[in-house]
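subagent[fold] <- orchestrator: predict structure for attached chain, return tokens only, no commentary.
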Amino acid sequence: MLGSHSTTVLTGRKTVVFSIALLLCLGFVTTTLVSYQVSKRAIRDSIVTQELPLTSDTIYSEILKDLVRPVFVSSMMAHDTFLRDWTLRGEHDSNEIKRYLTEVMSKYTAFTSFYVSEKTRAYYHPSGILKKISPLEPRDSWYFRVRQMKDPYEINVDQDMANRDVLTIFVNYKVEDYNGQYLGAVGVGLTVDAVRTAIRDYQQRFGRDIFFVDHQGRIVLQSMRPGQQETNIHFIEGLRKLAPEILSNKNGSYQYENEGSVHLLNVRYIPELKWFLFVQKTEDEAMLGIRQTLYINLAVCLVITLVVLALTGATLGRYQNRVEELATTDKLTGLANRQAFDLLIRQAMNDA
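subagent[fold] -> orchestrator:
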């Protein structure tokens, strides 16, 4: 009977310890998960409404220095009185235009500079006259496109025949005389690799994916990664549904899912380049720190629970032994009392 009583006491002790463990685990886990979800929502809202727009503004300021400057240089060339007067005088001394283009290229650190005259169809370059522009030559189609366009300039990615067909970003600017009559096209160029290097620097500095999109949704420029190809946002999973809204609104914040990841996106239109600036960050990258905090909190909760359970078990065991001792021992003599005698005699009788 005494053994049965001890078993009952032990079972009760285990029940108490298990209940305490269950309450502690539920409390800790519930509190940690609720805090994680609240923090996750707050971080996501902060990224979408503050961090990405601020990054876009900062990158836009950088672009004004690195990418937009060729537009202003081309505009300066198109409105230069020397260039217009030299053309109107009949383009007699080609050395003058050579020196002019060389000076522009060196002073503004451009990869190349050029001028094409409508009257003579000569393609002037710092090295001299490269060729005569012809409407029958496919590689000269850009010039006739510029002549017909309404806008004063365009940005075109094409091969530079003066520099071993290196892929180059050209700013083609229309040149008009003082009466608004078309005289030709002028501009400067930057290598695509140089611009990609600048974009890569932006990405490393700000920790974001950065790329440029034209009005048709084509990704015209980005820092190429291994296995990555330039494409169109209409073909990207998750982004294709947002493409019409993005291209019509020009500015805004969005989020979409692609390959199991949530992407947070901010879009800004750059009128100087006539491109859209896309700055995005995956939610997994943004939540990496808070997810590590979640794991640390769960580990701490587990350790605290184990410590509390150990202390609770030891305290209950000591308290239970003390209660049993008081219940079966005479306080004055320290001998077994009548209750202990009844338990022991019944056990002995049962054994006999």
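orchestrator: received. Logging for downstream: The chain has a mean pLDDT of 79. The first strand starts at residue 112 and ends at 117.
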